[in-house]
């Protein structure tokens, strides 16, 4: 559908980019991105994708806004404490861009509900704070063949990578299984610098937009790490693991399953 005059004005700074243009903006307007988790990582990703004009954005989160969230989860405000996170996020996204469609799923990601949601989207952003959900997102996206951006943060450090199922290393290629219970502290236990998820979540939104437009180089087969204290980024090459339990030559995982939750079990700790 041709851009309206209002859309041409709104997205003019995109349209003048030679790698985007009007055709690229139309691609964004027709695209669908699912954000799992509307906390620290999902907040900047959601705001920037709405501002960019991604036509349909899904928000999946089964939590309510807690006072402890406000130090980093910039999509939620003080008056939103107690409000369902997906509803709070929807209001801010529509305030930025009322012309995008926001679908909300006020549920926790589980093996019995995530696949049917994921398959409706072109790209998924992993904005969750726990290993069980991260492995679930990876596995569902693999079976549904939907690209996604993984990210994680703790204290002063973050990491992210982009996965194209059956073409690049998946999350389990790098991290085959969740760590033992108690071996990794949660954000509620170890803390997290408030601006850290803003940096990493914005990079996830960048990866989503690049994929949707088919431009640039994605963070595939690469784990990007960020240290806020030293202000350094590092690219670590990773590759498909032939012994990966999911996408390797002899897969052990042949269906989606829920992993045991081992971290971030405190209410309100959605990093």
Structural features, described:
The chain is α/β, with parallel strands linked by helices and 271 residues long. It has a single domain (31-237), classed as Rossmann fold. Helices cover 32% and strands 17% of the residues. It is built from ten helices and eight strands. It has an eight-stranded mixed beta sheet with strand order 3-2-1-4-5-6-7-8, sandwiched between helices. Helix 7 (131-144) links the parallel strand 4 (123-126) and strand 5 (148-154). The chain is globular, with a radius of gyration of 18 Å. Mean pLDDT is 93; it is low at 262-271.
The 3D shape can be described as globular
- CATH level 1 class label: Alpha Beta
Care to count the β-strands?
A: 8
Number of helices: 10
Which ranges are low-confidence, i.e. pLDDT below 50, for 5 or more consecutive residues?
262-271
> Strand fraction band?
15-25%
**End-to-end CA span:** 38 Å
Main sheet strand line-up? 3-2-1-4-5-6-7-8
Helix content: 25-40%
Secondary structure class reads alpha/beta
Major beta-sheet overview: 8 strands, mixed
Output the helix-strand order: HHHEHEHEHEHEEHHHEE
Number of domains: 1
Q: Please give the oligomerization state of what you see.
A: single chain
Radius of gyration, taken over Cα atoms and rounded to an integer in Å: 18 Å
